[in-house]
């Protein structure tokens, strides 16, 4: 933004115009910059804005941090704190006061740590340590959970309370490790390695909130590599929702708080039981509906099923009809033969050239005719007897009279192969006299010939 142009020397400025020119000049000249000092005269306004002075040994400046920025701070300011503020140099026109509009605040000395944090994060990210495809999914129903934290940490108590409330059946293994101070990162990495070799289904890495120095153990490279080296998924519940560490990026899942990490790992038992009850009710309803459908289909099939006695009656009617047809055919043949004989007799009587010889021929012809008729009758009688014998052999009752039994399987069809049966099937047995119901106890299978 170009510097505002001052008014001509002979013009008279109002106070408001002068203050606006000063503000525009300051904001266009000074970019966002970091300013370090000590907090004094701190005031939290009811509006949510924060007012304070930033001073050193020889000077001070008024500062304001608007509500939308103050809500993202994650910790509470106090008088006497040494901070570094990222600020825009500005001018409060109504009171004519020079001030800094604060965009972000960090504790003094955190600048170097933050640079180290960004450098390590970029290095590990370039190696693929934070790749999404390398993340391991959490088990749906874990049975044992490992917790890596300090035994004195309040966050550990919060996690244990949450796990006991949501999933009291979970077995918990605690791998203690210091979460702050010199050498804590190496101890955390060793605890992660021990937890990864156990029989746990997931690991919770937890610690309460704090400054970047307090959480620095979770920004060390050895912790990130230990997280990725474990065989089971790791949930990071370090600090508050606004706190981010290298462990958060390396973990398979980041929780905003330790309590949230416990909730991610555990399934709510009461909710699961309620869901199981709903599934059980659905299963019972579907089972009842399926049984009703099958019973209805069974009734429909039973109505279409023809009883063996009815089939036998139909076969008897067919045999009787065939017998009548055969008798009519035999009688018709006999009648035609008689007519032919009468015709021949009339011709013989009319001709009579040689009565003695014609009489002999007539007697011979009559003899042949009788033999032919007898042969025909014998032939048709044999066929009739054969058909009757075949029909008698096909008669189920005749077979039952010989000691055989008609076996009807569970599907309503006659059983011809024992391999079609299974133990426990119910069979309907029809005898020559009466019927019975039997249950299959054992099936002796027979190998079929190739």
UniProtKB/TrEMBL annotation:
Q: Indicate whether Transmembrane helix appears among the record's keywords.
A: no
The Gene Ontology terms for molecular function here are: exodeoxyribonuclease VII activity
Q: Which residues form the Exonuclease VII large subunit C-terminal domain?
A: 129-438
The enzyme's main class, written as a single word, is hydrolase
Q: Which NCBIfam families does this entry report, sorted A to Z?
A: xseA (TIGR00237)
Compartments it resides in: Cytoplasm
What's its job?
Bidirectionally degrades single-stranded DNA into large acid-insoluble oligonucleotides, which are then degraded further into small acid-soluble oligonucleotides.
The superkingdom listed in its UniProt entry is Bacteria
Chief location bin: cytoplasm
Entry's family note: Belongs to the XseA family.
Q: Which UniProt keywords apply?
A: Cytoplasm, Exonuclease, Hydrolase, Nuclease
Which reaction does this chain catalyze? Exonucleolytic cleavage in either 5'- to 3'- or 3'- to 5'-direction to yield nucleoside 5'-phosphates
Recorded protein name is Exodeoxyribonuclease 7 large subunit
Q: How does it assemble?
A: Heterooligomer composed of large and small subunits.
